[in-house]
Design goal:
Blueprint: H1 3-29, H2 39-42, H3 54-66, H4 69-77, H5 82-109, H6 116-123, H7 126-157, H8 162-180, H9 187-204, H10 220-237, H11 244-269, H12 289-296, H13 304-312, H14 323-348, H15 353-359, H16 367-383, H17 387-423, H18 432-451, H19 462-486, H20 492-519, H21 522-557
Helix pairs in contact: 1-5, 1-14, 3-11, 3-14, 3-17, 4-14, 4-16, 5-13, 5-14, 5-19, 5-20, 6-7, 6-19, 7-10, 7-17, 7-18, 7-19, 7-21, 8-9, 8-11, 9-11, 9-17, 10-17, 10-18, 11-14, 11-16, 11-17, 12-20, 13-19, 14-16, 16-17, 17-18, 19-20, 19-21, 20-21
Amino acid sequence: MSAIYLAVIGLAAFAIGYFFYSKFIAERIYRLDPDFQTPSHAMEDGVDYVPTNKFVLWGHHFTSVAGAAPIIGPAIAVIWGWAPAFLWVVFGTIFFAGMHDFGAIWASVRNKARSIGALTEDVVGHRARSLFMIVIFLLLLMVNAVFATAIAKLFINFPSSVFPAWSAIAVAVVIGYLIYRKGVGLLWPSIIGVVILYVNVYLGDSMPISLSDGTFGLAANAQWILLLFFYAAIASLLPVWLLLQPRDYINGLQLFVGLGLMYCAVIFLSPTVVAPAFNENVPDGTPPLIPLLFVTIACGAVSGFHGLVSSGTTSKQLAKETDARFVGYFGAVGEGALALAAIIATTAGFATLAEWEGLYNKFGGGSLTAFVNGGANIVHGGLGLPLDFSTTLLTVMAILFAGTTMDTGVRLQRYIIQEWGNIYSIPPLTNNYVSTFIAIAACLGLAFGAGGASGAGGLTIWPLFGTTNQLLAGLTLLVVSVMLVKLSRPVWYTLVPLTFLLSMTILALLFQLWEFYAQGKWFLLFLDIVILVAAILVALEAVSAFMREKAKAAQASGPAV
């Protein structure tokens, strides 16, 4: 079967979802008001609260939520065959992710841009908020630790990607300065910035950069992880207009061009999908398709991390409430398109089934390497671009996605630590520098604690990342559902996705609990137990609040819709 069918059907479904379903959500469920004063105007401070052009904000939001997860997840999940991964990405994006991301922005904007964790106290209760924020903080730890490990691995395996990846930071700072301090329009900085980024990708092949093992007594992988977190700490403290917004915006454009090249190559090459639709010969040790598919692919179908970005940084920059549809739902569509590209690259980017099976000889095999090599083969064959350039292009795409998520993730960790400082009256925790230091120290502790002295094994956290991510998505939908009940709005459109997510995720956590115990992975076992207990308690609190508000609504205006 030609991969063209997957591309056309998937992209057409996403377009229908955006133009029709998101319009229905905006008008009938969230009922957006173009005259509502958003927090970016009411609380503008020039640092975190900044009214932002919706296209720039979409770039920031899309690249922040995308990360490497919509590549890694599908690249692992295709071991069960392309069909389950394809169906979950398409239907998950339309009915789960779009509703979730859009809803988290709306809920936050309507409540002074407070985070989903902070909103939980008002909507559910004080105890639920404390538990919820523990789950959020653990998820952010995993996001930052996993992505730092993934980027470091790519830098080592593909040294030609180092120069173009780091040069993107300088390009972003210049663009931010031109737009926000010199009043230059978006058009020319956007065009010139994208051109410079692609020129740097070309130059990367002629100037590979590697770090030597043993410098300061550290392996190269460990050095890269430390450098990445040093950069993330600085990025999280700078005003959003100087680095975060322009970096995410220009990366969003560059990455969309990259996705365009990928899909054009699929059309011109028409590669054959060599992987089976349903793999009946999975390697020994591969976990069951259900429920593990729905937590292996989190980002790209639906992701709790998106709720943190939506309510943590995006809601503080939304200029008009009606922009939430474009930024939130279309941001989810962009990530779905990336996950779809990852499925195509990892199932149609190889010459034979035997070659594919050689890479997918164990669960977790393939991953980013399969995406880079498979995608490069498609771009090279379909567009005639040099194979080395194509490889560097795909690698830089993955790195920039992961890097922008780290920027936002560390900033969100700072916000949570500062919220704890306010809640428990601990003034030092409210300091930007102290809270950032604690966030970075915790991330480094997890990266090296799970991955060893070099940090190379940090990706062992991935199974728990997926379950925690999906759990948070279900809980976020639960908070949004309670708000809708209070407003006497229809809730089935959020209630069905959250019920499915909570069911699959708790089953996955229980399965992983047994696996970690059987394999003697005590560190992951401990994290699994903490997350499972907190999740169950939050869910019980939230269900109680949901039923309570539903009863109130029924008494006030008759049966709820």
